[in-house]
Write a structure and sequence with these properties.
Structural class: alpha/beta
CATH class of the largest domain: Alpha Beta
Helix content: 40-55%
Number of helices: 15
CATH architecture of the largest domain: 2-Layer Sandwich
Largest sheet: 5 strands, mixed
Order of helices and strands: HEEEEEEEHHHEEEHEHEHHHHHHHHH
Oligomer: single chain
Number of strands: 12
Distance between the termini: 30 Å
Radius of gyration: 30 Å
Shape: elongated
Length: 411
């Protein structure tokens, strides 16, 4: 077996194609290995539409970047014919070593996709020696094709939430399959609010899903989300966002009261945690001092802590009974102090969404998984030092957490 046979075997070149030459250019850094491939004289080629064997009409030369040969950059050059099909006319054929329209070989793109899953795109681009813009085009092509193949015919329960795409008011909304054990993301779209739900409905229909089969949607208490989702789907307000709403209200009260009164040290972070959670000694002392004080922050904190008592209800009727007592007791605790306005607002929102909150006791699902995924997405964003736009961020979310399967199955 000579050198050409070895290279041809490594490249996967099959008849009517054969390797006819190679040249190492040492005048460039890094050095470049140029491999020339040609078709056998008089060979027939399949029509790119019907596959019928046809004669070559003419040829044009193209070059593709291939995997490095040892430390050398490698390029493949070939004269590619246009076939003269009696039915479909003159068309350029597709070569077996590269996808249509790409100037990279399939093996090069496969390695690129493997690297991108493990590191930021910019770092992967440096390793393989191309610009990050060209690598993004590869990633977006394969992720886009894989997303087109998603089958949503069995989708029954979803969760949705927004995540920041960059600094400022720039978001993407992520939809996940709550029944999926792995890779649950099914749809990502720029923006937030009711328009994202409409986009999901259209995407669902395109991929075999039926809105009437979605028996549950878990989301936060965003008015825009609830208005859009509630018109089509059954909605469960996630308990995580209930606690988050009251925790923010407590912190708002603390901030306002701190401008008027000296508060215990370490209180800022202590009130954001559970009373029986992992507290430092300073935080535990701050909570103990808070409980014995007459501070308005103490009232807000006690109301927030009562949510844990509600959460432990073992059924929907028990939860309803506890919530009734919670609302009555909270109203008695709240004075007309302006500083407590954030807690009154949280209570009003809680009461307004009560029936959707109660669905939590009839459901086995929560938004906790999506919140965890949001941490993964934000970590990827931080590692990449941000993304140019929401499209690239959405592409990365699909790559990290969507069931995309084998990127090269359709090649």
């Amino acid at each position: 077996m000579d050198a050409n046979d070895v290279l041809a075997l490594g490249l996967g070149v099959t008849p009517p194609w054969k390797l006819v030459g190679q040249r190492l250019d040492t005048s460039t850094q890094p050095n470049q290995l140029h491999i020339e491939i040609a078709a056998e004289r008089g060979a027939l080629f399949p029509c790119p539409v019907c596959g019928k064997a046809s004669k070559a009409h003419d040829f044009a030369e193209f070059t593709w970047r291939h995997l490095n040969f040892f430390q050398h950059h490698c390029f493949i050059t070939a004269k590619v014919p246009r076939t003269d099909c009696p039915e479909h006319g003159v068309l350029r054929i597709n070569v077996p070593w590269a996808r249509e329209g790409s100037r990279f070989t399939l093996l090069f793109e496969q390695v690129a996709m493997m690297l991108v899953r493990e590191m930021p795109v910019l770092a992967a681009a440096r390793i393989i020696g191309i610009t990050d813009q060209r690598l993004w085009r590869i990633v977006e092509h394969y992720v886009g094709k894989a997303v087109q193949r998603l089958d949503l015919t069995r989708l029954k329960a979803i969760s949705l939430d927004e995540t920041a795409a960059k600094r400022g008011q720039t978001y993407v909304t992520v939809f996940i399959d709550l029944d999926a054990k792995n890779k649950p993301v099914v749809f990502v779209t720029p923006g937030r609010g009711k328009e994202t739900v409409a986009q999901f409905e259209a995407f669902l229909a395109e991929h075999g899903g039926v809105p009437s089969r979605i028996v549950e949607v878990v989301c936060d208490m965003s008015g825009a989300f609830l208005a859009a989702v509630g018109a089509t789907f059954a909605v469960t307000v996630d308990w995580f966002h209930v606690v988050q709403m009251f925790t923010k209200a407590v912190d708002d009260v603390r901030r306002a009261e701190a401008k008027q009164t000296k508060l215990p040290k370490a209180l800022r972070w202590a009130i954001l945690k559970r009373a029986d959670g992992r507290l430092t000694n300073a935080q535990a002392e701050a909570l103990a001092e808070l409980e014995t004080s007459g501070l308005l922050t103490a009232i807000a904190w006690r109301i927030k802590e009562m949510l844990r008592w509600i959460r432990k209800a073992d059924g929907i009727q028990a939860a309803r009974w506890r919530i009734t007592h919670f609302l009555r007791h909270a109203s008695q605790l709240l004075a007309d102090e302006a500083i407590l306005a954030p807690v009154r607002k949280a209570l009003a929102s809680f009461e307004n969404h009560l029936e959707r909150i109660l669905q939590r006791w009839s459901s086995n699902h929560s938004n906790a998984r999506l919140e965890g995924l949001n941490g993964l997405f934000q970590a990827a964003r931080a590692r990449a030092r941000g993304y140019r736009n929401t499209t690239t961020f959405a592409t990365m979310i699909y790559l990290l957490a969507a069931p995309l399967g084998d990127f090269f199955q359709s090649i």
